[in-house]
Amino acid sequence: MRLWKFSLRFNILWEANGEGGQTDGQGKNILGKENMERVLVTGANGFIGSNVCAYFLERSYEVYGLVRETSDLHFLEGLPVKLIRGDLTRAASISFPSGLDFIIHAASLVSDTLPRDVIERNIFDTTRNLIEAVEERGIRLKRFVHISTSLVLGYKALNISEERPGRSARHLAYTRAKEMTEAFLFAHHRKTGFPVVILRPADVFGPNDRTSSLRVLDAIERGWPAIAGSGNRIFGYCYVANLASVCHLVCQMRGTDGSAYTVTNGQDVTWREFLGMFQVALDKKQRIYVPVVFAYALALCMQLLHAVIPSFDALLTYYRISRVANNSSYDITRTINELGYQPDHDIEAQTRSIVAWYLREKASGYVDAVLRVKRRIGR
Question: In DSSP terms, which residues pair with 261 in a beta bridge?
């Protein structure tokens, strides 16, 4: 499957370097592009990782993908990604390519239900292991881009930023692990000058999203009510191609080391608008609207069942319902001003591309295979 054949609309600001070194108008130099710069993407077989790989390949980078021996490589089929087999829990054994310029660290466990020790081991520990392995090999990177989450800034508020944080999401082990990882990276940068940039995407959707989009679209096709309550709450929608474009921008901009940037589409989108586009594309009408109170009660029952029967797949959790029952949006002014970020706002084209991907995967049998695995492991 060739991701560049999808109807993805990538908008990217690119300026070539002159002899004197141009700036972006804000005092930050734009790195001169060398032929075939080398980038390693961790978690390359996943949702974000595979889209980042495709984005950098389209821009003539030599792309390496770090995957486990047991990884499902479906999303990398047809992409000329040079695979490196390795496990970040044992990063010292990874064979890194020579002349590596950038690392996009997209590998991460994403869960609001797994135990703290499991989550920390697969977020904080793996990031620390990766950096230790890079430094032990003497690899001099131009940039290390870490994909974090906007939840470190909080949620349940509008225009959230570092200066105006939202309500804390630290009740989630996932958020705490991301906070720990960011603190480690910032401290390491201050101590050693390690060239790290942290990206904080909000709710990321796009092709290859088998965690959220696939399950939502499957539920809509089965007649489940996708919109709880009025659906008029705003959320921090981020199309995956926009996130990939910011990964590229921070790799090419000087003066970004030690910084963190929030990434969304930069537009107010409600759950009703977004999920409604899915329903229209699938020719489905929602006839029953579940009150939020009932959705919370159902989520609690599902979580209790999951606690007793771990293999039970709790589609709803208290946290997930709280996301659709409250407004959450993020201020990306700094990302726009400092990086020249120009997000693609064509949400209708974006949702169509997600549905088109889903229907192709369903026709191939991949959707059913993914859902069988999720039901078996209860995630």
Answer: 199
CA–CA distance, 226 with 142 (Å, rounded to integer): 43
The pair of three-digit structure tokens given for residue 178, joined into one six-digit string: 């991301």
Cβ atoms of 74 and 47 within 8 Å: the answer is no
What are the residues facing 64 on neighbouring strands? 40, 82
Per residue in 59-98, pLDDT (tens digit) is 999 999 999 999 999 999 999 999 999 999 999 999 999 9
Name the pTM for this structure: 0.88
Tokens of 32: 């001169």
- Alpha helices per DSSP H over 156-291: 173-192, 213-221, 240-252, 271-281
**DSSP annotation string for 143-193:** EEEEE--GGGG-BSSSSB-SSS--B--TTSHHHHHHHHHHHHHHHHHHHH-
Q: Domains plus CATH for the chain?
A: 3-208+234-282+327-346 (3.40.50.720)
